[in-house]
Amino acid sequence: MRPRIVGTLFQKDFLDAIRDSRVLVSVFLPVLIGVFYNFAFQDEQRTNVTLAYSAAAPTTLPAELQRALPETFVLEIEQVQGADEVRARVRGDAHVGLVVPAGFDQAVALGQAPALTIITREQPTGGQNTIVLTLDGVLRRMAGQRPPATAAIERVQGEREVPLVAELGLRRYFVLGAVVMLVGFIGLIVIPIILAEEVERRTMDALTLVARTSEVVAAKALVGLAYTFGSLALLLAVTRLVPADLPLFLAAVLALAIGVVGFGLLLGGIFKTSGQAYTWSGFFLIPVIMPPFFLASELPRPIEALVLATPTAQATRAMANAVAGKAIFSDLGIAFVVMAAWAVVAYAVLFWRLRRNSE
Amino acid sequence: MISVHDLRKHYKDVRAVDGISFEVAEGEVFGLLGHNGAGKTTTIRVLTGRALPTSGNARVAGFDVATERAMVRPLINLVFEEQNLYDRLTGRDNLRLFARLYGVPDARADELLDRVGLAPAAKRKVKTYSSGMKQRLLLARSLVNSPRVLFLDEPTRGLDPTSARELRDLVRELSRGGVTVFLTTHYMEEADELCHRVAFLSQGKIVALDAPRELKLRYGERAARVLLRDRSEHSVRLDDPVAAPMLEQWVREGQIVSIHSAEGTLEDVFVALAGRPL
Q1: Phi/psi zone of residue B206: left (φ > 0), alpha (ψ -120 to 50 degrees), beta?
Q2: Distance of CA A178 to the CA centre of its chain
Q3: Does residue A203 sit at the B interface (CB-CB below 8 Å)?
Q4: A8–B100 C-beta distance less than 8 A
Q5: Confidence band for A159, pLDDT divided at 50, 70 and 90
Q6: Which residues of A304-320 are buried (b: 16+ CB within 10 A; e: fewer)?
Q7: B141: Cβ–Cβ under 8 A, 6 or more apart, which residues?
Q8: More confident residue, A146 or A226
Q9: Partner-chain contact B88 A19, CB within 8 Å
């Protein structure tokens, strides 16, 4: 392997491939998806609920309700005039409506059981249900009653429960999914396209007059890694995702990208045209980008074993630890062993094919 | 410069090249002619080290093409049958890429663009080039490493007559400069005009090999074309015993307007050897 030849080919591929619209889309689409996730999801899970109420006289009920709700609830309170307007607001974008009669607070305090109208939608939301359930306790307190029991909630982690989303938050979790997508798109779409195009246009014949096939392939693998880290930097910059353990994060992406690019090179050798590569690579992409999205769920054991056998799931485990800066997942050594094993298989088959072709 | 001995290349049951032998001298333009599938491109693939022979041996510039490929590569180059250029790159970038791969200065690319008349289009993307311009760029690319042996696989296919003539002039110039040229072509006139010697390949075997003139004399028909005063044209076979008295009579009667020799063409030779025209 001659570095000068590989470097020259890398430079050519790096600049030329991105001029292909298919490559351009494949490189930037995952970044755009990641940016979308970044804005669509929040790391802190808060429920925003709008409460519209009308009160014939001042009442402390909405304020008491707000005090009683958990911290993850953001209650927006709107006071309107009359029951009809409350109904109109609930038909619109308010989640719950209350019609509070005159002298409500005093009547509650005196134990007179005044009428309180609660207006909800036909299809209740989680936030709305919580408000309705919370109301009972609020009214008891306003009536000066003690709760029948003091309930305390204690949470324990299930043996197979993965606190991935809880630790990372939805935003960071989905951005990690976009990172895996990015590696998959570049490895399994971009790389097959540029390799198949070289064969399709017979430029490979011209290159192999002076370069070895292994040098051409190595240059394309480097292009895959360069595109991966270039678009990764862009994604991290736009989403402002700063992994707490950057070296671990980069090591996980690198280990994953090396293996996936290896499989991309194998695919590129199978297809006769870049059009075929572009069309069919998508099928191979699905099993690569899906496993990380299963990591947060409790799966039946055989499915879980299957998911954990994929390099993308293992890379996500390592990246999750790196982003959170703590050991959400244990046994990261296994993650790198799995990724290395896939890479070894990919490159062993690749070099076996190259050797066979050159004979 | 090229030495081939009992070379065979088989693909499973297909004998693409079936025991060919020949020598090509330095500076010689050697033509390999044959139908599609006769084994021309396979021969070039083996001689350029892109396919290993099944048996036999071939040496280019003194190196075995099977076992000393790394030594052969810098000394040869090839103009492919397909116009395999990078369309999204400019003409200059195409040449500079190969200049860098061969380890020669970028200036060589500019020099060659000038030589093939593409300097004004150097900064244009290749996808905007005409077929003739692409073919000239291919020839320029094949000269980047100043090869001692240049293989040309159907170099004028699809070119207009002017571009084809320009390319033939370049090949002659290279030959005069000592470059050995190994040419495959479908065009018999081209082979006749360019090649010092040609070999006819049929079903993987060489069925004739000699200078074009010798082959035409050996296999062509000796004839004359005679135009008479009544504007009738006659082809007269000189070996025909009836021809002499007839010619004598036309001369005596003063009927002949013109008389031209009509020696056989390479195509006639090929038909005689292979049984059907190219």
Answers
A1: beta
A2: 6
A3: yes
A4: yes
A5: low
A6: beebbebbbbbbbbbbb
A7: A206, B77, B79, B85, B94, B95, B98, B112
A8: A226
A9: yes
Chain B residues contacting A, CB < 8 Å?
A: 48, 50, 52, 73-74, 76-78, 80, 82, 84-89, 97-98, 100-103, 141, 145
Q: Do A202 and B84 touch (CB under 8 A)?
A: yes
What domains, with CATH codes, occur in chain A? 3-42+169-358 (no CATH), 47-142 (3.40.190.10)
> What's the mean pLDDT in A159-185?
83
Alpha carbon distances (Å) from B145 to A70, A165, A208, B142, B148: 76, 59, 14, 7, 9
**C-beta atoms of A210 and B102 within 8 A:** yes
Tell me the per-residue pLDDT of A262-299, one tens digit each, with 9 for 90 and over: 989 988 888 888 888 888 888 888 888 888 888 777 77
Please tell me which of the candidates B74, B84, B145 has its beta carbon nearest to residue A201.
B84
Do B73 and A210 lie within an 8 Å CB cutoff? yes
DSSP string for residues in B202-253 = ETTEEEEEE-HHHHHHHHSPPEEEEEETTS-EEEEETT-TTHHHHHHHHHHT
Residue the block writes with tokens 């004739």 = B208
Structure confidence at residue B162 (pLDDT): 83
User: Which residues of chain B does A9 touch, with a Cβ-Cβ cutoff of 8 Å?
Assistant: 101
**Nearest to B247, CA basis, from B264, B222, B224:** B224
Is B127 buried (19+), middle (13-18) or exposed (0-12) by CB count in 10 A?
exposed
Distance in angstroms (rounded) separating the CA atoms of residues A289 and A30 = 11
| Set of chain A residues whose Cβ sits within 8 Å of the Cβ of B146 | none
Chain length of chain B: 278
- At residue B60, the pLDDT reads 92
> How far is residue B207's CA from residue B205's CA, in Å, rounded to a whole number?
6
- Using the Cβ of A71 and the Cβ atoms of chain B, whether some distance falls under 8 Å is answered with no
CA distance, residue B145 to nearest chain A CA (Å): 10
Which of B19, B4, B264, B275 lies closest to B149, judged by CA?
B4
The backbone torsions φ and ψ at residue B97, rounded to the nearest 5 degrees and listed phi first, read: -55, -50
Pairwise CA distance, residues A15 & A198, whole Å = 15
In chain A, which residues have their Cβ closer than 8 Å to the Cβ of B102? 210
Q: What does the CA dihedral B162, B165, B166, B172 come to, rounded to 10 degrees?
A: 180
Q: How many residue pairs bridge chain A and chain B with CB atoms within 8 Å of each other?
A: 48
Chain A neighbors of B84, CB-CB under 8 A: 201-203, 205-206
Inter-CA distances, A29 with A14, A172, A235, B49, Å: 18, 18, 11, 42
Q: Do B88 and A207 touch (CB under 8 A)?
A: no
Distance spanning both ends of chain B, measured CA to CA: 28
A19–chain B Cβ distance below 8 A for any pair: yes
Cα dist. B32→A81, B35, B152, B231, B273 in Å? 98, 10, 10, 40, 14
CB B23 within 8 A of CB B206: no
Structure tokens at B224: 């004359």
Q: Per the structure block, which two tokens stand in for A267?
A: 């695919």
Residue A211 touches partner B, C-beta closer than 8 Å: yes
